[in-house]
Design brief:
10 strands, elongated, Immunoglobulin-like, binds dinuclear copper ion, Cytochrome Bc1 Complex, Chain D, domain 2, alpha+beta, five-stranded mixed beta sheet, about 450 residues
């Protein structure tokens, strides 16, 4: 009896102390988490999209919670190392402890609540990012080892001068939509401030991930499925390597990047797209020049896998596929023999259907890129000139559909956008037959 009496107040005192300690430690952990959470802006680049703030806010919340948990775990570790350290002469095992229902309920319930709350918050942010925005621009994205290509539908009206549609290259005529738009492709992603953008993305070969740190968006590209990512840029700037592939996709995954240019407004944006549109509408008449321009534009990923000295200024330094220096000589000799094709057919097939014949020593890595027919033939014409002699050892005949009728708008080189508009419009309107005849004569 006497031995139990004094123990009662002491145990009650301990409990009060424990509760106070838990409350104090809990407050310290929350304050510590909030302090660590202040590091959020230091961890990210500038917020350059309308979506960035909500992603950062969510991350901020997670960093506060994660910071508190980090301090709790590390604190307990340090406390245990000090409090339960082996004293001098202590050589026995620690006391075996088994089961503490209260503790287990607490450490299950608290994380469950945290995960539940984060799920709801994440779901809200995800839905907000994915929701279609009014007036959004659609851009088609092709990801292939190891580059990005962006295809836009652009109205001819951005040129600021009349275009005689009957003189457009046959493949462009086919592509011209009823609403007067034509598709153009570039290796750079263009947009402008406050223009919502929806990207429809396809992978040509393996899984890639489209990631723009400044916009806080990331989305996988999956072969055989179109995935979508949306953003609204808010800061006009050039973002070198603004897009990065965030999925290990092969030897040159690290160079799978693309620039983003965000223009101040729509007029500036149209100005950026005009030269790309003009090169599509009025391609060089010489297929060799045309083919070189296509390969130099890096809209196809060839340069990330093949080396070609003639295009080294356009980054043709890839080391994954066969080198293309002197490819015309090999096409005309060993490859033609091995494939029983003419040299031109061999080059055409190796772009159009890369797996048909594999250069010895190389695997079947090159995807079917869906290169339009006329682009392939122009590339073949250009590659035919890549010989040791410097001239084409064989002839490449362009299909009729791929021969541009004119080189430049009717009667002249493309005038700069915004200038000579009235004049060009008047000319085509008033004397269309004459202008057409003149241009045809010039092109032939
Ligand atoms: Cu594509 Cu990594």
């Amino acid at each position: 009896m006497a031995s139990t009496t004094p123990s009662k107040p002491s145990s009650g005192g301990l409990q009060t102390t424990t509760i106070i300690a838990v409350v104090v430690v809990g407050i310290l952990l929350i304050v510590g988490g909030i302090i660590l959470g202040q590091a959020t802006p230091l961890l990210f680049p500038q917020q350059a999209s309308a979506e960035a703030a909500q992603v950062d806010n969510l991350f901020h919340i997670m960093l506060v919670i994660g910071g508190a948990i980090f301090l709790l775990v590390q604190g307990l570790l340090v406390f245990s190392m000090w409090r339960f350290r082996a004293r001098k002469g202590e050589t026995g095992d620690g006391e075996p402890i088994h089961g503490n229902t209260t503790l287990e309920i607490v450490w299950t319930a608290i994380p469950a609540v945290i995960v539940f709350v984060l799920t709801i918050l994440s779901w809200q942010v995800f839905n907000s990012l994915q929701a279609p925005k009014p007036g959004e621009a659609s851009v088609v994205v092709a990801g292939a080892r190891f580059n990005w290509a962006f295809t836009y539908n652009v109205p001819l009206s951005i040129l600021g001068y009349e275009v005689d549609e009957t003189l457009l290259p046959p493949d462009v005529k086919d592509d011209l939509a009823d609403d007067g738009t034509v598709s153009i492709t570039s290796a750079t992603l263009y947009s402008y401030v406050n223009q919502p953008v929806a990207l429809a993305m396809d992978a040509r070969d393996v899984i890639h991930a489209f990631w723009v740190p400044a916009f806080r968006v990331k989305q996988d590209l999956i072969p055989g499925r179109t995935t979508t990512v949306r953003f609204t840029p808010t800061v006009a700037d050039t973002y070198p390597s603004g897009i990065q592939c965030a999925e290990l996709c092969g030897a040159n995954h690290g160079i799978m990047r693309a620039d983003i240019v965000v223009a101040e407004n729509e007029a500036e944006y149209n100005k950026l797209l005009t030269p790309i549109l003009e090169s599509r509408l009025f391609p060089p008449a010489d297929p060799v020049v045309r083919g070189r321009a296509i390969l130099e534009s890096n809209v196809y990923p060839c340069y990330t896998c093949h080396v070609l000295s003639d295009l080294s200024s356009a980054n043709w330094v890839g080391n994954v596929g066969p080198a293309l220096d002197g490819v015309a000589d090999r096409a005309a000799t060993s490859r033609a023999n091995a494939t029983s094709q003419t040299a031109a057919e061999y080059l055409y097939t190796s772009i159009h259907e890369p797996g048909a014949y594999l250069v010895p020593g190389y695997g079947n890595l090159m995807p079917q890129l869906g290169v339009p027919e006329c682009d392939v033939w122009a590339m073949v014409a250009y590659l035919a000139t890549q010989s040791t002699s410097g001239s084409a050892p064989f002839e490449v005949v362009q299909p009729d559909v791929c021969i541009p009728q004119v080189s430049g708008p009717p009667g002249s080189e493309p005038p700069p956008a915004g200038e000579a508009t009235a004049e060009a419009a008047a000319e085509t309107e008033v004397v269309p037959a004459e202008a057409t005849a003149e241009a045809t004569a010039e092109g032939s």
